[in-house]
Structure formats: structure tokens, C-alpha cells
UniProtKB/TrEMBL annotation:
The keyword Protein transport does not apply. This is NlpC/P60 family protein. The keyword Signal applies. The lineage of its organism: Bacteria, Pseudomonadati, Bacteroidota, Flavobacteriia, Flavobacteriales. Residues 49-58 have a biased composition (Low complexity). It comes from the Bacteria. Pfam families: NLPC_P60 (PF00877). Keywords: Hydrolase, Protease, Signal, Thiol protease. Belongs to the peptidase C40 family. Residues 47-87 are annotated as: Disordered. InterPro entries: NLP_P60_dom, Papain-like_cys_pep_sf, Peptidase_C40.
Amino acid sequence: MKKLVSISLFLLLALSWKASGQIITSKEEAVEKGLYSYSEVPGSLDITSGSSGSQSSGTERSKKKKKHRSKKNESVNEPTTQPVTVAKKEIELDENDYGFVSDFSLENYTQIQIVNNAMDFEGVRYRTGGTTKDGMDCSGLVFTTFKIFDISLPRSSYEQAKVGEEIKLSEVKPGDLLFFKTNRRKKTINHVGLVTSVENGEILFIHSTLSLGVTISSMSEEYYTKSFAQANRILN
């Protein structure tokens, strides 16, 4: 069909030009004389007047369209030249990562793990002589926690106070032990707690009490300030 249309147009041009004394014998000749032009775009056909300068040929327009499409494709496929910035997440170890411990370092790793394990017992009820989650007393909490790390301590708070190095209260760090004399009549060490945090001068420690079981208290509380006896460092 397309070929038939092309032949018919060619004959029409030839007959019309013959009337003016010229005979067109081929499509090439018609193009040379400015009577016929074509486009490379399928379905596009252009018949011009004798003056070829009156409008752009189909071939030129086709080239422009191709050039336009080429630029469009280049803009779509153009690689990104802007640098990709990956935000670095700074890892900070604070009290949320290690219970109440905020001064983590490789040097005090064991102390931190001891504190973490002691914190697992928080909420366990008080039980005289107890050393498990079914119930434990103050020295039982300390004894069981250190035993997890194969560190053997005496069973009573009185005997535990004889182990390690005695230090000043102002020098304590997480993992150190605090000893108290809560019995006014005997006036001997009968209670022990494990330091969990030292923040802005406030010392927190975990211990087991008759009323609350395993809980956390502060050395700023008057009761513990008055009954404090000494502090010991088991691990250096």
C-alpha cells in the first residue's frame, strides 16, 4: 500500500510538471529539482513547492528530532557526579548500654560484666542464706555474682570485707564493694552492696534488703551515709 501511494504521488508530480514542459523520470530527479522531499520518520511524507528554501526538509527535521531524542536520553542516563555522603554513626557507650555503668573501657570490662550480672537479680526477694533467684541476702547476691566469673568470695559480708584492697569512698568505681554496720548493738559489718554507678558524685549500689529484696540505693541516703563502714576493691 505504501509503495502504491509513493508511485501515485510520483506520477502525479510527473504529469503536473510535464504541463510546464519538464518530464520527471525518477524520485532522485524530483528531489534535485525541489519538488519532492521525504522524512525518515515512518509515515511522514512531504511535498514542497519549487522553492526549497521556504521550509526545512523532512530529512533535516528528522535529524533535529533524532538529536533531540539523543540529548534527552543523555540527560536521563547521565551518571550522578555528586558525591554520595554516608553519615557516620558515632557509637557511645552509656548507661543504657551497660546498665548503670557509663565509664566503659577495656580495662574495666570484667567489672562492668559483674555489674551487669548483678543487675539481672534486681527484684529478687530477700531470703536469709539465699544465693539464687528464688531468694538471696546481701552477701548471697555478691557471692553469686562473683562466682559467675569464677571469683570465690567468702559467704558472709563480714568475711567479704577482708578481701581485696580497702579504698576511700571518693575513689570507688563500678564493681567495688561497700560495707555497712546496720546493727547498732553489734557494731560489726553485717551488710554489703555492689557499686553500679558513680555519676556527678552520687554513688549508686545494688544490694538485698529485708523489705525490698534486691534493689538499688544511693549513698546520698542518710541511712547509708551513717551506717557506712568501708569500701573494698576486689578487682584492680
